[in-house]
């Protein structure tokens, strides 16, 4: 899970005055209130994170205790063609998925902004996001079936050849990317829509007075002012996109010929298929670092914290 | 996998729909109208593309497998029947099932439905209540190190699921909790960083006077929390509970790791197994779509009932 916010640090800094309270304030009460959450955090986040890092330095099959092997797993990873294939496949997926999804989401958000505030429209657009990945994947798996799928039936009706969407190595990954564009575009659009609400209407009025048409307004007003919001949306959607698993697992399962073996699936197969927990942990450490790097890079490149106005 | 919903503070200014000054309606009164028509046309196409797969799932679930091939593009169910649901709920014999084009594997979606309900309910109850307690400590109590500890809790958001899933699997295995409900539930039972963050935002906004009045009347912190803070936050707590429930219901990865056996298998995992069991040449499409419908319907209904609340919860919590 991920959260977009810029409010947290600001809110946390607020309220420095602590009038006539004992030095430790409500420390005792706070500790009691924090007991359950701390148990959960330490047991299922903090300790596992440390343990995961430790596993990555060991040879570990769960059946026998971990054996320390230094950086062997990382050396193996550098020379593992399947690892590089998985990273490449994942990167390709992210680019297709995020590229199309972002463009469509901006379009939908702008359309909603200009046409309607209806909660019904927003609800419909949002609906796919709340249906399980597995359900979405299977429905599209049927609709895109080579023989029975409605999409191929329609393709044939208009005189085109039916396509093996999941059987063709060149098509399988774009198909999965498109399915997830369908699932996520409405949700992303609503996030961007929320961002659009924050643009001061007076800027548009000023642009209109200067004779800017709708297209010009979009390029010169909407997009630049939306940039901080867009940057945060992208950090979250890209991070999520890198973790694609469910859709692949229930449709193509990595095939044909590794064309959809994304990094999450590869790690899953290493750990739970081959019981190679040490190596799988090393890969997830690398994935974590890649995600962190990509997020920081994005925030830098897009200067997310600054708006063009101030 | 990742959810990004953040309590949206209501827009500071009402959505500005500035009425056109009566004097100047002429400029572009024709062109925007064409633009509007085109815009609505695009919007309707988008809505149709969004809704069609849901309809197709419904239509196919009520179809007969043998008729599906001949009527692949028929908008109505091909040979209307409830057989697919009977197969999915394990109400047919093996011979009947095979005759209808079923996989013949032992499936019982009543059981998986029950398991999904148990798992999602337990996760929601624990996570929302315990996260509310933590959020209260972070928002309303004053103690040294509060913001630092909060930042540490929040940092867990950056960690990809699989990084902690492997050690968590080992832990659940060591505890002997594989294929049990506690194994499914525990990792998200006590907190998620998102839930704490979400509720903290709301608790911050409750006026201090109310709480102080209660404490002057002699109520303890615990009592104030239960009797004042929680009831006052009924709306955000409901929203969070709904989001948590949906998230738990849809989760695939973790139940796949620790909940394979029949007694605790949830719908998403069952769907994956159903799909892999289905014969290669002629899959049981009607059965598969009936099964996905069973998995999706509770969420769609929840969404229809509480949609407005969910829709309004999506936004930003105070980007300036």
Automatic annotation (TrEMBL), chain A:
<keyword id="KW-0813">Transport</keyword>
<feature type="transmembrane region" description="Helical">
    <location>
        <begin position="225"/>
        <end position="245"/>
    </location>
</feature>
<keyword id="KW-0812">Transmembrane</keyword>
<keyword id="KW-1133">Transmembrane helix</keyword>
<feature type="transmembrane region" description="Helical">
    <location>
        <begin position="27"/>
        <end position="47"/>
    </location>
</feature>
<comment type="similarity">
    <text>Belongs to the binding-protein-dependent transport system permease family.</text>
</comment>
<keyword id="KW-0472">Membrane</keyword>
<dbReference type="Pfam" id="PF00528">
    <property type="entry name" value="BPD_transp_1"/>
</dbReference>
<feature type="domain" description="ABC transmembrane type-1">
    <location>
        <begin position="87"/>
        <end position="298"/>
    </location>
</feature>
<dbReference type="GO" id="GO:0055085">
    <property type="term" value="P:transmembrane transport"/>
</dbReference>
<feature type="transmembrane region" description="Helical">
    <location>
        <begin position="124"/>
        <end position="144"/>
    </location>
</feature>
<protein>
    <submittedName>
        <fullName>Sugar ABC transporter permease</fullName>
    </submittedName>
</protein>
<feature type="transmembrane region" description="Helical">
    <location>
        <begin position="164"/>
        <end position="182"/>
    </location>
</feature>
<feature type="transmembrane region" description="Helical">
    <location>
        <begin position="277"/>
        <end position="297"/>
    </location>
</feature>
<dbReference type="InterPro" id="IPR035906">
    <property type="entry name" value="MetI-like_sf"/>
</dbReference>
<feature type="transmembrane region" description="Helical">
    <location>
        <begin position="91"/>
        <end position="112"/>
    </location>
</feature>
<keyword id="KW-1003">Cell membrane</keyword>
<dbReference type="InterPro" id="IPR051393">
    <property type="entry name" value="ABC_transporter_permease"/>
</dbReference>
<dbReference type="InterPro" id="IPR000515">
    <property type="entry name" value="MetI-like"/>
</dbReference>
<dbReference type="GO" id="GO:0005886">
    <property type="term" value="C:plasma membrane"/>
</dbReference>
UniProtKB/TrEMBL annotation, chain B:
<feature type="region of interest" description="Disordered">
    <location>
        <begin position="1"/>
        <end position="30"/>
    </location>
</feature>
<dbReference type="Pfam" id="PF00528">
    <property type="entry name" value="BPD_transp_1"/>
</dbReference>
<feature type="compositionally biased region" description="Pro residues">
    <location>
        <begin position="8"/>
        <end position="18"/>
    </location>
</feature>
<keyword id="KW-1133">Transmembrane helix</keyword>
<comment type="similarity">
    <text>Belongs to the binding-protein-dependent transport system permease family.</text>
</comment>
<feature type="transmembrane region" description="Helical">
    <location>
        <begin position="184"/>
        <end position="203"/>
    </location>
</feature>
<dbReference type="GO" id="GO:0005886">
    <property type="term" value="C:plasma membrane"/>
</dbReference>
<feature type="transmembrane region" description="Helical">
    <location>
        <begin position="150"/>
        <end position="172"/>
    </location>
</feature>
<feature type="transmembrane region" description="Helical">
    <location>
        <begin position="286"/>
        <end position="306"/>
    </location>
</feature>
<feature type="transmembrane region" description="Helical">
    <location>
        <begin position="37"/>
        <end position="58"/>
    </location>
</feature>
<feature type="domain" description="ABC transmembrane type-1">
    <location>
        <begin position="113"/>
        <end position="306"/>
    </location>
</feature>
<keyword id="KW-0812">Transmembrane</keyword>
<feature type="transmembrane region" description="Helical">
    <location>
        <begin position="117"/>
        <end position="138"/>
    </location>
</feature>
<keyword id="KW-0813">Transport</keyword>
<dbReference type="GO" id="GO:0055085">
    <property type="term" value="P:transmembrane transport"/>
</dbReference>
<protein>
    <submittedName>
        <fullName>Sugar ABC transporter permease</fullName>
    </submittedName>
</protein>
<dbReference type="InterPro" id="IPR035906">
    <property type="entry name" value="MetI-like_sf"/>
</dbReference>
<dbReference type="InterPro" id="IPR000515">
    <property type="entry name" value="MetI-like"/>
</dbReference>
<keyword id="KW-0472">Membrane</keyword>
<keyword id="KW-1003">Cell membrane</keyword>
<feature type="transmembrane region" description="Helical">
    <location>
        <begin position="224"/>
        <end position="246"/>
    </location>
</feature>
């Amino acid at each position: 899970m991920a959260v977009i916010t810029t409010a947290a640090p600001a809110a946390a800094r607020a309220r420095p005055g602590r009038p006539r309270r004992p030095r430790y304030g409500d420390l005792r009460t706070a500790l009691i209130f924090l007991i359950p959450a701390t148990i959960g955090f330490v047991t299922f986040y903090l300790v596992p994170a440390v343990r995961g890092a430790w596993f990555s330095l060991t040879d570990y099959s769960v059946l026998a205790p971990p054996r320390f092997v230094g950086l062997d797993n990382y050396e193996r990873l550098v020379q593992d063609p399947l690892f590089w294939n998985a990273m490449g496949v994942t990167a390709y997926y992210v680019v297709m998925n995020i590229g199309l999804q972002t463009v469509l989401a901006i379009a939908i958000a702008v359309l909603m902004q200009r046409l309607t505030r209806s909660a019904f429209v927003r609800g419909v657009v949002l609906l796919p996001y709340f249906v399980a990945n597995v359900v979405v994947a299977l429905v599209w798996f049927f609709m895109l079936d080579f023989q029975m799928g409605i999409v191929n039936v329609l393709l044939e009706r208009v005189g085109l050849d039916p396509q093996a969407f999941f059987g063709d190595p060149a098509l399988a990954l774009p198909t999965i990317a498109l399915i997830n564009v369908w699932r996520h575009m409405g949700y992303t659009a609503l996030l961007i829509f929320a961002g659009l609400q924050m643009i001061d209407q007076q800027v548009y009025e000023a642009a209109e007075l200067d004779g800017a048409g709708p297209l010009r307004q979009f390029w010169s007003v909407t997009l630049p002012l939306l940039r901080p919001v867009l940057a945060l949306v992208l950090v979250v959607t890209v991070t999520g996109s890198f973790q694609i698993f469910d859709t692949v697992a229930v449709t193509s399962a990595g095939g044909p010929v590794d064309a959809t073996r994304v990094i999450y699936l590869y790690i899953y197969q290493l750990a739970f298929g081959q019981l190679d927990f040490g190596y799988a942990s090393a890969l997830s450490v690398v994935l974590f670092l890649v995600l962190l790097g990509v997020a920081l890079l994005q925030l830098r490149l897009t200067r997310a914290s600054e708006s063009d106005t101030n | 996998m990742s959810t990004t919903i953040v309590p949206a503070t209501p827009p500071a200014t009402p959505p500005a729909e500035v009425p056109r000054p009566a004097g100047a309606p002429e400029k572009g009164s024709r062109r925007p109208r064409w633009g509007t028509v085109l815009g609505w046309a695009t919007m309707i196409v988008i809505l149709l593309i969004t809704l069609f797969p849901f309809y197709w799932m419904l239509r196919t679930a009520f179809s007969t497998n043998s008729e599906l091939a001949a009527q692949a593009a028929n908008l109505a169910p091909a040979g209307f029947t409830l057989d697919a649901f009977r197969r999915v709920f394990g109400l047919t014999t093996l011979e009947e099932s095979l005759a209808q084009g079923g996989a013949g594997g032992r499936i019982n979606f009543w059981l998986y439905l029950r398991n999904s309900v148990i798992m999602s309910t337990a996760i929601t109850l624990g996570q929302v209540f315990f996260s509310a307690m933590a959020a209260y400590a972070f928002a309303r109590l004053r103690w040294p190190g509060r913001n630092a500890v909060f930042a540490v809790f929040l940092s867990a958001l950056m960690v990809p699921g699989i990084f902690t899933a492997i050690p968590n699997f080992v832990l659940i295995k060591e505890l002997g909790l594989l294929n049990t409900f506690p194994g499914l539930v525990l990792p998200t039972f006590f907190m998620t960083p998102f839930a704490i963050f979400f509720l903290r935002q709301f608790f911050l906004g409750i006026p201090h006077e109310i709480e102080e009045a209660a404490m002057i009347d002699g109520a303890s912190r615990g009592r104030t929390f239960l009797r004042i803070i929680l009831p006052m936050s009924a709306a955000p707590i409901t929203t969070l509970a709904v989001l948590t429930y949906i998230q738990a219901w849809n989760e695939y990865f973790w139940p796949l790791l620790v909940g394979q056996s029949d007694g605790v298998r949830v719908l998403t995992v069952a769907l994956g197994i159903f799909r892999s069991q289905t014969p290669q040449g002629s899959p049981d499409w009607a059965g598969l779509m009936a099964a996905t419908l069973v998995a999706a319907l509770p969420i769609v209904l929840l969404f229809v009932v509480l949609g407005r609340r969910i829709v309004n919860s999506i936004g930003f919590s105070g980007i300036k």
